[in-house]
Amino acid sequence: MSHTSCQGVAMSDSTPQDSPLNPAITGLLASLRMGEPRIHNGIGLWPVFAESSPEPAYITLAEALSLDGFKITEVSEGGSVPSLRVINETPHHVLLFDGEELKGAKQNRILNTTILIASGSSLDVPVSCTEQGRWSYDSAEFSSSGSLAHSGLRKQKSASVAYSLQMNETHASDQGAVWSEIEQLHMAAKSDDNSKTRAMKDAYEGSQRELDEFTRDIPCQDGQCGLLAVIGDRVEGMDLLSLPDAYAKLHRRLVESHAMDFLVRKKGVSRKALDSEAPARFLAEAAKARETVHATPGLGSDHRLRFRWGHGAALRVDETVVHLAVFGGGGLGQGHHPSEPRLHRRRRSHL
Fold first, then answer.
1. Which of 16, 181, 261, 335 could cysteine-pair with 150, CB 3.0–4.6 Å?
2. Which residues contact 212 (CB under 8 A, 6 or more apart)?
3. CA pair distance 180, 176, nearest whole angstrom
4. What would the DSSP string read from start to end of 53-111?
């Protein structure tokens, strides 16, 4: 299969110097309230609450795809692996969430970063391939696969995108590492023999019974706007949205993302007892993060965070943090998880 070069979408107007966190992010972190965790098969999932911000208003990708005037296509008839075109002729801003999977057109993709697309605009967005064995049309436009990349893949991809922004101001991922993560997922899910194109969604479909059992135990709560996952004494990650209604529409996918990583890929084994104090310690460290600020394809600015126990990203529009995602490293005080790429390492060439 012949692919075009995986270069990211060009950005501009960035401030790449390392600096303290923007006050909007530190203020958000300080305001968070944690609900009672739900514990399932050794993983703890904490509901997160914060004051919502009505502006900017937006709808989710799943909502937008059901409306006339919104569509996602290849950037041209020939296509380009690392980019897709989004046309939003609706009266709504639309939130594309980091790791959401799109299926169809010439090849399934996941979004490399969270992007807020303004009403009445069109733009090209950076993506990664999640289906190695197909480069031919099966539809003119993309639809939602209903899945979010598993948390381990989102963590790895976020780090490689941060590296790309640091080096050349593009939201490019390490495509080889993405394929490697998906291949490991297929092997763990025992779906490798049933997936002709190595599509990520095939692994999810083969594990749907396990995922359904997990998500039934983790309902979305009224006013919830985020989710924080802990295994043992390690925070795997946290996602937070500015609008509880938007979060509610993504809740199941976020739970499945952690379930897929833990139950399937890691076989649901925690080597340590669940530490109920881990979230507070982790968030205290996250508040000390340093950031670089970059342009984003849509509205707002892209903030990339690095701190003692992890890294993250935030999409800020004016004084509102629309989406905050932070990912944990290794055990407390041990820095990075072994599978997490370091930002200073040499990036693999894209395929």
1. 261
2. none
3. 6
4. --SS--EEHHHHHTSTTEEEEESSSS-BTTEEEEEE-SSS-EEEPTTEEEEETTS-EEE
Residue 300: burial class (beta carbons within 10 Å; 0-12, 13-18, 19+) = buried
Strand partners, 44: 39, 230
**3-class state of residue 22 by DSSP:** coil
Rounded to an integer, what is the distance from CA 144 to the centroid of its chain?
A: 15
Sign of the torsion formed by the C-alpha atoms of 163, 164, 170 and 176:
negative
Q: Which two tokens stand for residue 45?
A: 């999932």
What is the dihedral sign for C-alpha 120, 126, 131, 136?
positive
Q: Phi and psi at residue 275, in whole multiples of 5°?
A: -100, 110
Show me where the domains of the chain are located.
15-328
Could you tell me which of 27, 53, 32 has the C-alpha nearest to residue 228?
32
**Buried b / exposed e across 22-38, counting CB within 10 Å, b at 16+?**
bebbeebbeebebeebb
pLDDT at residue 1 tops 80: no
Structure tokens at 190: 């025992």
Q: What is the pLDDT of residues 8-19, one digit of tens each?
A: 333 334 556 789
346 pLDDT band, cuts 50/70/90, is very low
| Per-residue buried b or exposed e for 223-233, using 16+ beta carbons within 10 Å of the residue's own CB | ebbbbbbbbbb
Q: What share of the chain is helix, strand, coil (3-state, %, to 5)?
A: 25, 30, 40
Structure tokens at 2: 């012949």
Higher per-residue confidence, 344 vs 327: 327
d(CA 282, CA 273): 17
The count of other CB atoms within 10 Å of the CB of residue 273 is: 9
Average pLDDT along the chain = 88
Q: Which residue bears the tokens 């070069």?
A: 5
Per-residue model confidence as pLDDT tens digits over 68-77: 999 999 999 9
